[in-house]
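User: I'm preparing a small set of examples for a lab meeting where we compare how different chains pack in three dimensions. I only have the primary sequence for this one, and I'd like the structure in token form so I can line it up with the others. Please keep the answer compact; I'll paste it straight into my notes.
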Amino acid sequence: MKQATSLVVGLAFALIASYSARAQVTLDVTKITCNQFVTYKITNPQYIAVWLSGYYHGKRGSTTVDTQALLANAKKAQEYCLKNPEILLMTAVEKILGD
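Assistant: Understood. Below is the structure token output for the 99-residue chain.
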């Protein structure tokens, strides 16, 4: 009985550890290329656009979000990136929207 309990506890721990390992994915946004952005190689481009919006708003000290501008800027970034796939995404965003 003691072995069975140990086995169940060990399996439960292994499952929890493997789930945690998969959930902890980090990403250096400064290394995302335009190609990766527009071809969904990282994730949905809208998720990245939302993160970038928060990042740049935070740099400016702004706590407001204009959802229409967010969508328009995401579209501008996608259009620019389609024409310039080798450029880093953050460089493209800075060229489109300024610092």
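A couple of notes for your slides: The CA atoms of residues 58 and 68 lie 18 Å apart. The chain has one domain: 27-97.

User: Perfect, thanks.
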